[in-house]
Design a protein that fits this description.
279 residues; alpha/beta; 7-stranded parallel β-sheet; 8 helices; 11 strands; 33% helix; globular
């Protein structure tokens, strides 16, 4: 698509503004795609080893402990993951007026990653926003307003998520498209299977995807063949609505704290430098 088709007069993203923009597009029945490039995706794009295993994470040359559940485990080996990196790079480079990319930004100390993504894309466009768009200072609004309104605006909802998941609350009327553990180890077969199912989605359906880097690739490839679909990479913001734990990320502390300890923890998080989204 020619560069002159993109807006020239733009302002940098704001968390509140971009949530409102997506809401307006849904209400106008304008399909769009939103994929998120967080630190894990950046490591794959940079062709660096990434391991999230049982109690151990290898990230940017460092090794440290973790407490992630089984469904969060994954491993990227640059020598074996060329197909994944190729497709993830295609997703990162793709440009379309209705294809939005969330990228790492200043508030989470990721200026180098932000600049990496900007260089890949030849500079900033109005189709770029925060990878944390649904998190941190936007977390409560996203959960209590944005997603309930989005789901209510669509007749058909499909949710791409781990095979253990069970849809609850307002997502209970949706249909699950299952993803296996550590899809990196069976990438091509998993991608082809899920793509085949999503290509048969009802016209103008909403697809919510909680599938790590696979979400980026699915969002891109579906945009090419089913531009009538609205595809949103939800990450872990709706874990409780898909039957997964809500205590695996720092921002989960904001979700309905009950005890004094939980309330204090949420209070402290709101004062953390990463809480307020900053470009």
């Amino acid at each position: 698509m020619k560069n002159e088709q993109y807006e020239v007069n733009y302002s940098f993203p704001t968390g509140e503004g971009d949530l409102s923009r997506f809401e307006e597009m849904a209400l106008k029945r304008e399909p769009f795609t939103f994929v998120r490039f967080s630190d894990g995706e950046i490591e794959v794009l940079r062709n660096r080893k990434l391991v999230i295993a049982d109690g151990v994470t290898e990230f940017r040359g460092n090794r440290f402990s973790n407490h992630f559940p089984e469904f969060d485990k994954k491993s990227f080996d640059p020598l074996r993951g060329k197909d994944i990196r190729r497709d993830l790079l295609s997703s990162a480079l793709f440009r379309d007026l209705s294809y939005f990319k969330g990228i790492p930004t200043y508030h989470n100390g990721a200026v180098l990653d932000r600049e990496f993504m900007l260089r890949l894309n030849g500079g900033f466009t109005s189709q770029m926003t925060f990878s944390d768009l649904f998190l941190n200072s936007n977390f409560i609004r996203a959960r209590e307003q944005f997603f309930p309104r989005m789901v209510a605006a669509f007749s058909d909802v499909l949710v791409v998520c781990n095979w253990r998941c069970k849809l609850e609350n307002y997502l209970s009327r949706g249909r699950i498209v299952q993803v296996p553990d550590n899809f990196f180890s069976s990438y091509l077969s998993t991608l082809n299977s899920i793509l085949s199912e999503l290509k048969e989605a009802p016209e103008s359906a909403l697809i919510l995807s909680s599938a790590s880097s696979l979400s980026n690739i699915l969002g891109h490839q579906l945009r090419l063949v089913r531009p009538d679909l609205t595809f949103i990479d939800i990450g872990t913001v709706l874990n409780d609505c898909i039957g997964l734990p809500m205590k695996t990320r720092a921002y989960h502390k904001l979700n309905a704290p009950k005890t004094m300890r939980e309330k204090f923890s949420a209070w402290c998080y709101r004062r953390h430098p990463e809480y307020k989204l900053k470009w």
